[in-house]
Amino acid sequence: MSVSEPAATADAPVAPPAKLDDVMLAMDVVDTLRHRGRLVERELNEDVREDQLIERLRALYKSQGIEVPDSIIAEGVKALKESRFVYTPPKPSFSRTLATWWVKRKTYGKWMVGALAAIGIAVGGYQFGVVRPQQQAVEAARVELTETLPRQITAAHQAVAAEAQIPAARQQADTILAQGRASLVRGNAADARSALAQMDRLATVLRQEYVLRIAGRPEDQTGFFREHPSFQGRAYFVVVNAVDSQGNPVRLPVRNDETNQTEIVSRFGVRVPIETFDAVRNDKVKNGIVQNTRMAEKRRGFIEPEFRMPVLEGRITRW
User: Are 222 and 142 in the same domain?
Assistant: First the structure.
């Protein structure tokens, strides 16, 4: 029996893995060649043998005091040719974008937190600075139209009705009340407030009590006459003072017929017929003062004062 030969399919011996130092040296060779581009261009692009380039690299390292085996230098030259240690960035893609975001997630996270905080502050400021005040204004307007103004107008009408002593005052109050309620139905708060103000003024007038006394002292200008287009000829006036029961001045709204403006005064001129004017003048001529000074009296519950002597329409606040 013959002895069989070793199987041809036996595993060939496997080369041991390269050491880390050898790999690092090879990478350094590639880096040296890359930074010395003129050397590479001259040696690799021309028809010069590779062993000459290896020889020059060996001399370069030796001049630096570094001993690099020829195999490592050859491996570095080969790696440079194959671009083995050259990083080629991947082409733009969705996966690359996601990877970039993941790598820079801390930086982007800070930006996102800051952006979200800014958006939150802006939204909160708009909500509390614009939206909420608008909502409050709308709600306040609704409450005013449906609750506050109706209650106030009704209460003011009741106060006027309680004070009024003549039908004319009640009729005027009813007219103002109807106007105010119509304004509320239309949703016009401004007109409703105006109606309320008119009702309050009417109540104030009804509560007033005063006397119109003729300015009859020796130093007073008791009467005068004017000629003005609004009077259509000569008009005679008697000067009066509005005073309360204690003699204190009472300021009243008086429309000046010469200027068509209303002024708040306590002394003004009342237009009278010539007969009244002469009677007052004769009264003062007797002893320098007017004895009958009580021209009119305004009682509570009435709109206008009651005159005790004949007078005409027309008032003057300046003379």
Answer: no
